[in-house]
């Protein structure tokens, strides 16, 4: 079946003049709406990247507001590229779908989501909806709130599906059946999250007088989550990446400062992107960071090498802008980097320049730092403090890749005599015949 260039446009010209908001404001509002609707970080990022292609088209034309002609040209160009075979079907439909979703939000203020697969998008009874919203209105990190919403909606929808329109008659038996049902459909990591947030939900329900018990004993079981061995970079590879950066250029100065924050301090990509000028205390030689993942504050030493890299970028390469964030776009408008993925792209490009392929895995620098600290004999408790881990188990994983010390745990085979019968099939058959005792 041939590809057809569509002649319709997904936008009305009068809608463009109605909102009067600049494109960055629209994207920020769109991201906030996606968060409210319960989308996780990865999903929000995917939606924003696709919408960003339309925004980038406006920036190239020097437009701060949505323009009907640019939107029409955008749809027409992607359709022509699809028709000529320059882009795949998947890419074409994905770009068009997400651009349309963004424009629909601008026009209506509503996010038109895909098929409801996550619990957060399941319709609830008014009473359950009220319980969920009151529970989620508490003090939570945005990422935690997304997971909590997913579990609360899934649990309440399950109760309603099984004939419980409210919590009357709901107790330990129903909780166990729900968890059992989840165990048949979910991975161990998902089951862990369900148990964790369901326990927190019942603490809220108990304190609110909506449940006769928090059922703490019921949630006391441990879920053995899947744990993968993640790669780390060797010292030589890290040195190769740093030496390959051209620090004479604007982009090189920014890239070098970004990589140094990962190599020396082990910062997460999201924290690097969110780093502000006010977070650096030059007099005390400290960097104070509110971690995006844990919402915990960590104070790290501003080492000389990291300080020099940041100073070189800020004084000699950073554009003149009122932005509070340290790392901003090199091209106008000089706004803060949108997300952690941009930090990952900087890392990927630096690796590619020296023929290394680690993709956008900026987090590998954090793992490499943790592993090198453990290899050097640093206590796991100290590693946890340096990396800002609130859970000690998060730091213990670095022990798994400490090959040198793991060799010391290997048991020798001295004194273990091999069974001589293994080399004598006839003897083995007489002593362990298949089908009956030897006569």
What brief labels describe this structure?
19 helices, single chain, disordered N terminus, three-stranded antiparallel beta sheet, hpI Integrase, Chain A, DNA polymerase, domain 1, mainly alpha, 3% strand, 439 residues
Descriptive overview:
This protein has 439 residues and is an all-alpha fold. It folds into three domains: 13-108, no CATH class; 119-207, DNA polymerase, domain 1, CATH 1.10.150; 252-414, hpI Integrase, Chain A (Orthogonal Bundle), CATH 1.10.443.10. It contains 19 helices and three strands. It has helices at 13-19, 23-36, 41-60, 68-83, 89-108, 126-136, 142-161, 172-183, 188-207, 235-243, 250-264, 269-273, 304-316, 340-352, 363-375, 380-387, 392-396, 403-407, 425-431; strands spanning 280-281, 286-290, 297-301. Strand 1 and strand 2 form a beta hairpin. The protein is globular.
SSE diagram, text form:
Blueprint: H1 13-19, H2 23-36, H3 41-60, H4 68-83, H5 89-108, H6 126-136, H7 142-161, H8 172-183, H9 188-207, H10 235-243, H11 250-264, H12 269-273, E1 280-281, E2 286-290, E3 297-301, H13 304-316, H14 340-352, H15 363-375, H16 380-387, H17 392-396, H18 403-407, H19 425-431
Antiparallel strand pairs: 1-2, 2-3
Helix pairs in contact: 2-3, 3-5, 4-5, 6-7, 7-9, 11-13, 11-15
């Amino acid at each position: 079946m041939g590809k057809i260039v569509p002649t319709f446009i997904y936008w009305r010209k009068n809608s463009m003049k109605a909102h009067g908001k600049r494109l960055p404001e629209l994207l920020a509002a769109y991201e906030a709406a996606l968060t409210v609707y319960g989308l996780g970080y990865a999903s929000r990022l995917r939606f924003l990247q696709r919408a960003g292609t339309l925004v980038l088209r406006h920036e190239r034309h020097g437009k701060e507001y949505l323009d009907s002609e640019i939107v029409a040209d955008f749809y027409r160009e992607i359709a022509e590229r699809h028709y000529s075979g320059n882009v795949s079907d998947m890419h074409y439909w994905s770009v068009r779908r997400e651009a349309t979703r963004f424009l629909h939000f601008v026009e209506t203020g509503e996010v038109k989501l895909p098929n409801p697969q996550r619990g957060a998008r399941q319709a609830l009874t008014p009473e359950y909806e009220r319980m969920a919203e009151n529970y989620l209105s508490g003090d939570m990190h945005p990422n935690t709130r997304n997971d909590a919403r997913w579990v609360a909606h899934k649990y309440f929808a399950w109760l309603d599906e099984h004939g419980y329109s409210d919590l009357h008659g709901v107790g330990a038996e129903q909780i166990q059946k729900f968890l059992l049902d989840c165990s048949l459909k979910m991975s161990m990591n998902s089951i862990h999250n369900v148990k964790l947030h369901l326990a927190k939900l019942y603490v809220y329900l108990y304190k609110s007088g909506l449940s006769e018990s928090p059922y703490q004993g019921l949630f006391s079981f441990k879920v053995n989550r899947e744990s993968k061995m993640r790669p780390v970079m060797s010292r030589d590879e890290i040195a190769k990446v740093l030496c390959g950066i051209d620090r004479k250029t604007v982009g090189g100065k920014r890239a070098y400062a970004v990589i140094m924050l990962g190599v020396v301090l082990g910062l997460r990509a999201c924290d690097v992107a969110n780093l502000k000028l006010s977070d650096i205390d030059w007099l005390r030689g400290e960097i104070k960071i509110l971690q995006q993942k844990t919402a915990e504050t960590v104070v790290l030493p501003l080492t000389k090498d990291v300080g020099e890299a940041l100073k070189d970028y800020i004084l000699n390469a950073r554009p003149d802008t009122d932005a509070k964030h340290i790392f901003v776009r090199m091209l106008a408008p000089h706004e803060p980097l949108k997300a952690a993925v941009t930090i990952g792209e900087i890392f990927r490009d630096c690796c590619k320049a020296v023929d290394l392929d680690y993709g956008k895995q900026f987090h590998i620098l954090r793992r490499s730092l943790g592993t090198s600290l453990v290899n050097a004999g640093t206590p796991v408790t100290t590693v946890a403090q340096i990396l800002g881990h609130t859970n000690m188990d998060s730091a213990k994983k670095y022990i798994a890749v400490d090959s040198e010390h793991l060799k010391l745990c290997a048991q020798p085979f001295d004194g273990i005599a091999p069974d001589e019968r293994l080399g004598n099939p006839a003897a083995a058959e007489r002593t362990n015949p298949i089908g009956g005792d030897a006569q």
